[in-house]
Amino acid sequence: MQSRTPASRTGRPRSAAADTAILAATREALVELGWSKLTLGDVATRAGVAKTTLYRRWAGKNELVVDAVAELFDELELPDRGSLAADIEGVVLQFAAILARPEARSGLMAVVAEATRDDALRERIRASIVDRQMRLVLEGRARAQRRGELPPEPDPGEAARTVDLIFDVVAGAVVHRTLVSGKPADEAWVRSFTRVLLLGLASQSAEGA
Amino acid sequence: MQSRTPASRTGRPRSAAADTAILAATREALVELGWSKLTLGDVATRAGVAKTTLYRRWAGKNELVVDAVAELFDELELPDRGSLAADIEGVVLQFAAILARPEARSGLMAVVAEATRDDALRERIRASIVDRQMRLVLEGRARAQRRGELPPEPDPGEAARTVDLIFDVVAGAVVHRTLVSGKPADEAWVRSFTRVLLLGLASQSAEGA
DNA sequence: GGCATTACGCTACGGGTCGTAGCGAAAGCT
DNA sequence: AGCTTTCGCTACGACCCGTAGCGTAATGCC
User: Fold this and answer.
1) Phi and psi, residue B15, nearest 5°
2) CATH number, span B70-208
3) What is the pLDDT of residues A97-130, one digit of tens each?
4) Taking the domains of chain A in order of start, what are their residue ranges?
5) Mean pLDDT of chain A
6) Nearest protein residue to the C1' atom of C6, measured from CA
7) Which homologous superfamily does the CATH classification assign to the domain defined by A16-57?
8) Which nucleotide is nearest to B12 (CA to C1')?
9) For residue A27, how far is the Cα from the chain centroid?
10) Domain HTH tetR-type, which positions (chains A, B) (predicted)?
11) Residue A188: predicted pLDDT
12) Please, are residues A197 and B170 in contact by the beta-carbon 8 Å criterion?
């Protein structure tokens, strides 16, 4: 959310229903029109609000779509499936399911592209979308260490680099498979991918120590 | 290129200089303005051609930028560095160097985002950008098999799936590292990544047979 | 209740870009 | 020469942008 409730106590409060209606209308427009043909006037009409109301809450198309897409990732969880491999497969399948939805496909890559020239937008994406994914990696790693499937890493710097690497490999591979190669990240693919990743990490910690 | 020389023999030929000027102007505008603020009228002015000339050769912004960005990937090669690990590290560093350029960063993700709703554009990207990268994977794999670093794969279907997986992992990880995480894919990162990938593939072929 | 304050819906506007049509001139080929 | 295609240029309607202005609605504070 744009989250602006710092010290405003008096006056008419902002309609929370308008927020949800606007974000839902944004996703609807993303599905029907895609990023490039999406206009803020159309979104406002779909949401049943005035165009000026939309501009009072979001600075522009970029910020609006980031918030609309971010809500899709709220459902990401890390269920305990008993083993590291199963945990990874589960969360990767969830991630792939989200990326398979057209409102995510058309919106996510577009805002990432815009963020290459807009640091504030990049930070917004990091805070509302990427961080949630990163936490799953950290949580999965900690759980695997408790299980004894991964050795504890004493060096915090090395641990951070490894987590970053895993994150880029996992998220990047799924995104590339889905959006560039245009093939589904189905169960068979996820199994192969998880196998290579885990074997690589295991061999690394075995011989790298 | 847009490649339209099927049967036109008579009449004034199209200026080849205009093509290169337009594509160069497109990359220049991508650096200065980014994808969203790039306008075809501005590109035409930069290139010193009329706007109508530009529209006669490209259907729109998407196709133009794909061609302009595609030329950046022409320099991709697979130099023989003696080992599979060194070959991979070399080509990944080349790929990362291209993605570090601002004209590639702002343009590539944007056209990929557009391609999620445009099959013809997706095919254009595949033919002019992705295929070249895929060939490097195939060539590297064949070279490693000649060296004996990778076992020959008798099943062609399984071999194709493995190559697809490697391709998505490599390209996806580099792209995600560079454009989403916003951190450089420098030599240290590439070395760590290559190590995990190769160990994973080696263990897979060792135990998977 | 009355008042200040903020949000809302609506209309209207200048500015910019789009993509195309139409024209005369230029540059090739036969 | 004559034919054909491209080029540069101008002009145009259409669309979207982002904002200003106004009257109205909904809250908190006195």
Assistant:
1) -75, 120
2) 1.10.357.10
3) 999 999 999 999 999 999 999 999 999 999 999 9
4) 16-57, 69-208
5) 93
6) A11
7) Homeodomain-like (1.10.10.60)
8) C28
9) 15
10) 16-76
11) 97
12) no
